[in-house]
Each structure stands twice: as C-alpha cells, then as structure tokens.
Amino acid sequence: MRVFEVSIVNDTAVPVVVRDCDDYCSSSPIKLVLAPGASAPINRTTGEHKTFSITTASGARVGCLDLYYETPQPGARALASHATPCTGRPRPLWQKGGLVIALIAVLALPFVLIRRRS
C-alpha cells in the first residue's frame, strides 16, 4: 500500500467546510475550510475508501466525496462540485434503543430521588 497526495479542491463559488466523515458531522479529526478556488492536500492509500463530507460555511449540506483509488494517483484532484449525496451509516437499532433507555433513565432519576425522600 503506497501513500500519495490528493488535493480536495473547492471549485464552487462559496466557501465550503470539508470534514472526514461519511455523513454530515459537526466534529472530526480533519476539518478544512476552503475558500472558492482553494485546495488542500490529503494523503491517501490505495484500496481503501475514505469519505469526506462537504457543507457550506453556513452549514448547508453539499454532499460527500469518496476518495477511493485502486492505483496510486499522485496529484489527483477531488472537486467539491462532484460531491454526491452522503450515504452515512445509520446507528444500529440496539444503539438507538440504548440511547432511548439511557435518556428515560436520566429524566426519571430526579422523580425517583424525590419519591424516596418523601
């Protein structure tokens, strides 16, 4: 597996925010704010999908870029205008259920504590 550099290019007329997540996220290890015409280098490897979400600076969803390359393509350019709808990975049902149960428990805790004091 060889590492090579790819440029993410904002070829749109508005500033964009690029994050390394496969769905729209508010935080991630990589966050790039690109003015129109600006670009940023990203290191890539072959045979591995890496998705970046793109939003406008005001938060409007643009789409996602999957930077997947079968062979090294040093100097490749990934254009923001080529973003497609983000596929995202929805939370598994067990995680959603666990979050709901945790929320109910937190909301019920004050009532249980008050009742025990009475």
By DSSP (H or I, 4+ residues per run), the number of helices equals 1
Question: Structural class given helices, strands, pairing?
Answer: alpha+beta
Order of helices and strands: EEEEEEEH
The amount of helix comes to: 10-25%
Number of strands: 7
Unreliable runs: none
Shape: elongated
Biggest sheet descriptor: 4 strands, antiparallel
Radius of gyration: 20 Å
CATH fold label of the largest domain: Immunoglobulin-like
Strand content: 25-35%
Spatially, the strands of the biggest sheet line up as 3-2-5-6
What is the level-2 CATH architecture name of the largest domain? Sandwich
The structural domain count equals 2
Q: Mean pLDDT, as a whole number?
A: 86
CATH class of the largest domain: Mainly Beta
How far do the termini sit from each other?
A: 66 Å
Secondary structure topology:
Layout: E1 3-9, E2 16-19, E3 31-34, E4 39-45, E5 51-56, E6 61-66, E7 76-79, H1 93-117
What structural keywords apply?
118 residues; 2 domains; alpha+beta; 3-stranded mixed sheet; single chain
Give a short summary of the structure:
The protein is an alpha+beta fold. It contains one helix and seven strands, in the order E-E-E-E-E-E-E-H.
Characterization of this structure:
- By secondary structure, the chain is an alpha+beta fold.
- The protein has 2 domains: 3-87, Immunoglobulin-like, CATH 2.60.40; 90-118.
- It has 1 helix and 7 strands, in the order βββββββα.
- The radius of gyration is 20 Å and the shape is elongated.
- It starts with a strand and ends with a helix.
